[in-house]
Amino acid sequence: MRILGIESSCDETAAAVVADGREILSSVVASQFATHGKYGGVVPELASREHLRAIVPVVRLALEQARTGLDELAAVAVTEGPGLVGSLLVGITYAKSLCFARGLPLIGVNHIEGHIHAVLLEAGERIEFPALALVVSGGHTHLFEVREGFAYRLLGKTRDDAAGEAYDKVAKLLGFGYPGGPIIDRLAPYGDPRAVRFTLARMKGNALDFSFSGLKTAVLRWVEQHDLASEIEARRKLAAPGFDEWLRFTPQATLDLLASFQATVIEELLRRLDASAEEIGARSLIVSGGVAANAGLRAAARNASLPGPVFFPSPALSTDNAAMIAAAAFPKLARGGIDDFALRASANLALA
Ligand code: KG4
Ligand code: ZN
After folding, report:
1. pTM for the whole thing?
2. Which CATH superfamily is domain 129-313 in?
3. Which residues of 213-252 are buried (b: 16+ CB within 10 A; e: fewer)?
């Protein structure tokens, strides 16, 4: 049973064909980094325009690479939210048109549920329930209990910035490009993670909630106290730098700052992963979303003594893609969970 997945919630236009919720026949992702890079973050209006430009060729390429005709599809799945409404609308409208023209079932998928299915897609039966899922990306830092049959309960979430957002804001502040996560991740091993002591967030109320705005402000204070203006300016002037250039233009003190920032984010994430897994008696731990691509986080999770085995998606399935959307739609289709053309883009769609 082949499902075409379409994802356009933020700054990636993606399409994929997945068979039986498990086998990826194709997964095409067109990123808009070049468009948003100079602004240090996603510009919604530009994102919608880029989606409009990319959606037709991206879907066509996904079908071609999967050697799948529209008449071989069992359904079209599309991200309905959360995300940027103008961006979501492009994917939803295109999916509806395909379904209308070809008489195909339409399935709306929650983007966060998609991220969780990125792990289920690859790890399959090795995931035991109840599972704990930490979805950590540019838009979300959420902890869910996942029961058999994909029932979700929200255990905690960020009260301010998402972890990926903190990476992107710190990168922007320091004159690195967008997205900031991959750059900081690669530079962090060159610094001393104990050089700058950041305090961990103490949460009143739900101890499983997250907060990253204090850390972001602490980085800002550090930058203000150290004279970084000229090195930041030099980095901002670099045109399309590669990793070696970033490294060359980043003095040791800044590398130490980045390493310390990353170590603090990882500690915040792993502490709550550990505590929440303990609380629900999780038999598997899932970490997904763009920040799950972080090499430091993966290594730290492997070395930590957590209450159960930890599963990460492969890096390509950690960041936004449409294979995870098609995979999440498979159990919905099996249950007859088909949407009608009233399906709407929903900026704040909740999973639980
Ligand atoms: O899941 P995703 O592609 O989009 C959202 O749903 O938000 O995640 C993008 C986020 C960005 O904030 C990006 O900086 C971050 O994930 N990211 C990383 C890494 N790769 C991407 N953060 C830390 N380390 C990485 N290697
Ligand atoms: Zn995402």
Report:
1. 0.96
2. ATPase, nucleotide binding domain (3.30.420.40)
3. ebbbebbeebbeeeebeebbeebeeeeebeeeebeebbee
